[in-house]
């Protein structure tokens, strides 16, 4: 056994060349830049992090820093060799000693100081600033483990490249052999990651999501009211709606609850939902949604809301129920499923969300326009997270279409790729911050994080009204590919109240930090991160302005809806 292992190692060494690869000592430049990147990774980001997540962030950052430093040192050695110079052993030992002392001091000092930074971030989102010190002391060790694993993986890849290049060296010139080795190694790595690891992971996620989509939440039962999809007379059958569709129609607000809240007679609200299994094609599903609205009397209601779903088909009750209470049940809400995968997976295939949003809105709008102008319901849009992207896509990202074709809209926690959001944000007036832009003196579109923001600017707010709810600390809103190379305007001053004043932008690193913040976007109190709580209640009151509705009614309804669950990003 030992002899076989020794012979295998000898063959690999013979093909790889005389230089050690996997067991090679770290380079000075790589370690230096790795320490720098480790320290920078502990600087504040948008949201608090658990110690293990901070260790992962720091480890990956340090590994990337090592790669950059190694390349810089190699270039420096080539230039020095070209100039006929070299680094003497004594100087090299001195440099290593200085790096050891200063690097260790920097790691310890910055890790300790980061506890203060983390406390600032926690205060910004109203969490207690206290951190368990022994857990945070594990951060450098977790980071070292991550760096070691990534460095070993990189050196194994490098070894494979050397073996391939050496094997081709006898057939083609050395530069061609090296290039061939690099290309083949890259091809194999990409094939393994995409064709095996990534595909297997996505298949497992899809399989689990498919099974979950066929389940029904405990306590949710098939409705019997004709105003709801999935009822006995519905063409959108109960078992085709998907888990989130069954939740949506199975938890419609009872008219008795509405009447008890308002003190006035109420109607049974209309809720229409079409699942992926309800019809074979996108066009057929959109047509079925319109037929369901006709069957349930949705086009004769006062308010008709077209709603975009998140990846799993979920619609937040905090966005759907307020309309039913405010308008005494005289509402219709319609939605259509485009996926059953979690939003963070569905975001990889945004085309499905965009196509579904356009198909649903176009079908509803086409029918709506045939109705007499004096008896049409008020047509409004709603979407949260990826659902907001779906509904914005229905308008082709056009502010003019928003004003001309809708009676109002509510978009909650928009993504960086939302077409309408990008357009109106880019048109903000000078001096207004990116996190709360002012567009055309707030004539139609306004942005808010708290109810007081609806009054900004102090100018007339016409009809129709659209509101964007976006928290300053929501990584879903603020992460984008451009964050890697460009300092974002939302870090300018004044900053949103929930963004740490100590947060700074660093090329590449800040993009990685904010991407990791997505993991904790739902682990903060309402009003921060990707949690908006009952804020949609006040937004709908401002957008639709129900007759006789008061600020006290809004506060009272928010108290009623506050206990509703808000599952979050996984939906």
UniProtKB/TrEMBL annotation:
Q: Where is the Alpha/beta-hydrolase N-terminal domain?
A: 42-251
Q: Which residues cross the membrane?
A: 27-47, 53-75, 95-113, 133-154, 175-197
Q: Which InterPro entries match?
A: Alpha/beta-hydrolase_catalytic, Alpha/beta-hydrolase_N_dom
Domain Alpha/beta-hydrolase catalytic: from-to ranges = 270-557
Which keywords label this protein? Answer: Hydrolase, Membrane, Transmembrane, Transmembrane helix
Is Transmembrane helix given among the entry's keywords?
yes
Q: Which GO terms describe its molecular function?
A: hydrolase activity
Q: Which domain of life is it from?
A: Bacteria
Return the protein name: Alpha/beta hydrolase
Organism field: Streptomyces sp. R39
């Amino acid at each position: 056994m030992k002899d076989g292992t020794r012979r295998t190692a000898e063959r690999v060494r013979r093909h790889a060349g005389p230089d050690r690869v996997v067991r090679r000592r770290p380079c000075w430049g790589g370690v230096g830049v790795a320490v720098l990147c480790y320290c920078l990774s502990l600087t504040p980001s948008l949201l608090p992090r658990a110690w293990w997540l901070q260790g992962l962030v720091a480890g990956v950052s340090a590994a990337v820093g090592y790669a950059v430093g190694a390349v810089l040192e190699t270039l420096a050695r080539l230039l020095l060799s070209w100039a006929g110079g070299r680094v003497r052993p004594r100087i090299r030992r001195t440099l290593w000693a200085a790096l050891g002392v200063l690097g260790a001091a920097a790691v310890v000092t910055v890790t300790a100081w980061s506890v203060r930074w983390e406390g600032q971030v926690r205060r910004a989102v109203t969490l207690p600033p206290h951190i368990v010190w022994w857990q945070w002391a594990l951060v450098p060790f977790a980071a070292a483990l991550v760096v070691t694993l990534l460095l070993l993986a990189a050196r194994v890849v490098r070894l494979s490249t050397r073996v391939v290049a050496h094997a081709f060296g006898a057939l083609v010139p050395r530069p061609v052999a090296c290039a061939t080795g690099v290309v083949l190694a890259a091809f194999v790595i990409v094939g393994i990651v995409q064709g095996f690891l990534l595909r297997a992971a996505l298949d497992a996620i899809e399989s689990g999501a498919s099974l979950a989509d066929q389940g029904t939440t405990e306590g949710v039962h098939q409705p019997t009211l004709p105003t709801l999809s999935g009822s006995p007379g519905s063409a959108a059958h109960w078992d085709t709606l998907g888990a989130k569709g069954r939740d949506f129609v199975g938890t419609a607000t009872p008219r008795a609850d509405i009447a008890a809240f308002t003190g006035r007679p109420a109607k049974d609200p209309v809720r229409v939902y079409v699942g992926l299994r309800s019809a074979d094609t996108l066009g057929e599903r959109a047509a079925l949604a319109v037929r369901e609205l006709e069957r349930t009397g949705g086009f004769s209601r006062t308010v008709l809301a077209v709603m975009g779903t998140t990846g799993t088909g979920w619609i937040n009750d905090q966005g759907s129920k307020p309309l039913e209470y405010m308008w005494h049940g005289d509402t219709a809400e319609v939605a259509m499923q485009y996926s059953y995968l979690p939003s963070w997976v569905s975001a990889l295939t945004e085309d499905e969300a965009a196509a579904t949003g356009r198909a649903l809105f176009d079908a509803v709008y086409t029918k709506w326009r045939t109705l007499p102008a004096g008896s049409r319901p008020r047509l409004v849009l709603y979407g949260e997270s990826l659902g907001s992207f779906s509904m914005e896509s229905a308008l082709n990202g056009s502010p003019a279409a928003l004003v001309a074709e809708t009676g109002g809209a509510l978009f909650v926690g928009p993504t960086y790729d939302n077409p309408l959001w990008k357009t109106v944000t880019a048109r903000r007036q000078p001096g207004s911050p990116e996190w709360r832009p002012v567009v055309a003196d707030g004539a139609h579109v306004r942005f808010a994080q708290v109810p007081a923001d609806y009054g900004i600017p102090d100018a007339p707010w016409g009809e129709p009204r659209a509101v964007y709810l976006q928290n300053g600390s929501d990584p879903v809103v603020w992460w984008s590919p451009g964050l890697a190379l460009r300092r974002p305007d939302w870090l300018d001053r004044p900053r949103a109240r929930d963004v740490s004043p100590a947060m700074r932008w660093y090329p590449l690193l800040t993009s990685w930090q904010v991407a990791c913040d997505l993991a904790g976007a739902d682990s903060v109190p309402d009003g921060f991160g990707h949690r908006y709580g009952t804020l949609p209640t006040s937004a709908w009151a401002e957008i639709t302005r129900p007759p006789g509705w008061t600020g006290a009614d809004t506060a009272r309804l928010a108290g009623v809806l506050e206990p509703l669950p808000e599952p979050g990003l996984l939906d």
